[in-house]
């Protein structure tokens, strides 16, 4: 599950492209399949979205929730790929992007009527 926050006037026009870029990074770095896209966009009014100094109204927060198991090198590669491609393909400067990876143990995930540690048919590797 990926949640993307931003000021609605800046985020709404970019949603489709940003989703494509994020998913492309998830595929190339983590090996996620094409049909494994779960993005939630939260466009906010400017008065509801406070952000750090030195950032523009294009400031965008990306929270990536995933099962535990990726190495630090893989996680860093994902973050760097996101910064690079979001800048080159969407036009948001890295200073205006904040990325947080949130990992939880597989037993803390629930989908298709089971917990993540019970799933044996995932079409992607978690330990990469």
Task: Please provide the ordered H/E string of secondary-structure elements.
Answer: EHHEEHEEE
Q: What is the end-to-end distance? A: 18 Å
Name the average pLDDT.
Answer: 95
- Helix/strand/pairing class, anyone? alpha/beta
Helical run tally? 3
What quaternary form is this? single chain
Beta strands, count? 6
Name the features:
alpha/beta; Macrophage Migration Inhibitory Factor; four-stranded mixed β-sheet; 3 helices; globular; 25% strand; 128 residues; two-stranded antiparallel ribbon
Strand and helix map with partners:
Elements (H helix, E strand, L loop, with lengths): L1 E6 H4 L3 H16 L8 E6 L15 E8 L4 H19 L6 E8 L5 E2 L2 E2 L13
Parallel strand pairs: 1-2, 3-4
Antiparallel strand pairs: 1-3, 5-6
Helix pairs in contact: 2-3
Quick rundown:
The protein has helices at 8-11, 15-30, 72-90, and strands at 2-7, 39-44, 60-67, 97-104, 110-111, 114-115.
